[in-house]
Amino acid sequence: MSVLDLDMSIAAMSVGMHQAQVQQNLGVAVLKEAMDSSGQGLETMLSSMTESLDPNLGTMIDVLA
Question: What is the distance between the alpha carbons of residues 13 and 46, in angstroms, rounded to a whole number?
Fold first, then answer.
């Protein structure tokens, strides 16, 4: 193995490691976006559920029916 081959292998390894890091960063960014959007959907659902609750519902029982 010559010095030139060794230099090329180091360069190829460096490029491969950089590509792996970029892919990992992209995966993390996609997961963060998914978590943020699911959290916003949950907040929206909970707020719509609490807004639709009737405070008088279930407080009286009709025993004559």
Answer: 49
